[in-house]
Amino acid sequence: MQHVLVTGGSRGIGAATVRAFVRAGYAVSFFYEKSVSAATALSAQTGATAICCDVADTEAVARAIAALPPVDVLVNNAGISHTGLISEISPAAWDRLFAVNVKSIYNTVRAVLPAMLQKQAGAIVNLSSMWGQAGASCEAAYSATKGAVIALTQALARELGPSGIRVNAVSPGVIDTEMNAKLSPADRAALAAETPLERLGSPEEVAEAIVYLAEAKFVTGQNLPVNGGFL
Questions:
Q1: What is the mean pLDDT of residues 182-203?
Q2: Is residue 119 predicted with pLDDT exceeding 80?
Q3: In CATH, what number does 3-226 get?
Q4: 17-70: per-residue pLDDT in tens?
Q5: What burial class does residue 178 get, using C-beta atoms within 10 Å of its C-beta: 0-12 exposed, 13-18 middle, 19+ buried?
Q6: Nearest CA to 205 among 182, 180, 231, 174?
Q7: Residues contacting 124, CB < 8 A, separation 6+
Q8: Main-chain phi, psi angles of 4, to 5 degrees
Q9: CA–CA distance, 146 with 152 (Å, rounded to integer)
Q10: How far is Cα 11 from Cα 32, in angstroms, rounded to an integer?
Q11: What local confidence, expressed as pLDDT, does residue 185 receive?
Q12: Residue 22: HSE in the Cβ half-sphere, 13 Å Cα cutoff
């Protein structure tokens, strides 16, 4: 049975991804940081192993992964957002955004890589965003991190492909998650109207794309948009 590790797995897209891989017959572990009750409930519901870990902490990630069985599929889902003018974001907030959204991928990939290299096999799926492709006004920092995820994905696909390790990204559009719950009903309606499918996406629909990329044996270096045609 293959082992999947999902970061940011307690809520939203991460939780849907945990459930999808469990249904597909994988052994699943997931990282969470603050959502203890949600992580405990998800673990009880699915049998997945919940691990409290700050993905931006290099040493904590290394310790946590060293205590797990070898990882066959890594899903880098953990992420935070920021809305506001670039003139208003503090240096600390900018740094934290990059630490969670980008450095975390460096941390996890370095930790899982020895086992994948030994097997000459593995799959890595990184979560970007449609704003990493197009950029969003008043989300410059977030857009920059997600653009970096796409570039890192493509570079790693070239670097790790000869070792049998595939690396892909998924770029969700506006998904009905807690992260977007802060939007006003009017803003949500406007975003749905801008989407050709005329609705917001669901976490489960993003999870389907993640599982596909984990299993698509001749697909690497790709960024799969899951945005209802928004871009």
A1: 83
A2: yes
A3: 3.40.50.720
A4: 999 999 999 999 999 999 999 999 999 999 999 999 999 999 999 999 999 999
A5: exposed
A6: 174
A7: 73, 74, 75, 76, 109, 112, 153, 156, 160, 165, 166, 167, 168
A8: -110, 135
A9: 10
A10: 9
A11: 80
A12: 19
List Cβ neighbours of 220 (8 Å cut-off, separation of 6 or more): 157, 161, 166, 167, 168
Q: Is 142 a catalytic residue?
A: yes
- What pTM value is reported for the model? 0.95
Contact between residue 169 and residue 219 where contact means Cβ atoms under 8 Å apart:
no
Tokens of 89: 């974001």
CA 28-42-184 angle, to 5 degrees, is 115
pLDDT at 138 (0 to 100): 79
Q: Which residue has the tokens 């790693």?
A: 156
Q: Where do the domains of the chain lie?
A: 3-226
Q: Which of 26, 32, 106, 142 is catalytic?
A: 142
- Residues 199/226, Cβ–Cβ less than 8 Å: no
What is the tens place of the pLDDT at every residue in 55-75? 999 999 999 999 999 999 999
* CB within 8 Å of 69: residues ≥ 6 apart: 3, 27
pLDDT of residue 41: 98
Cα separations in angstroms, 2 against 23, 26, 28, 122 = 13, 5, 8, 10
Position 226, amino acid:
V
Tokens representing 66 are 């060293």
| Virtual torsion, Cα 61, 62, 65, 66, nearest 10 deg | -150
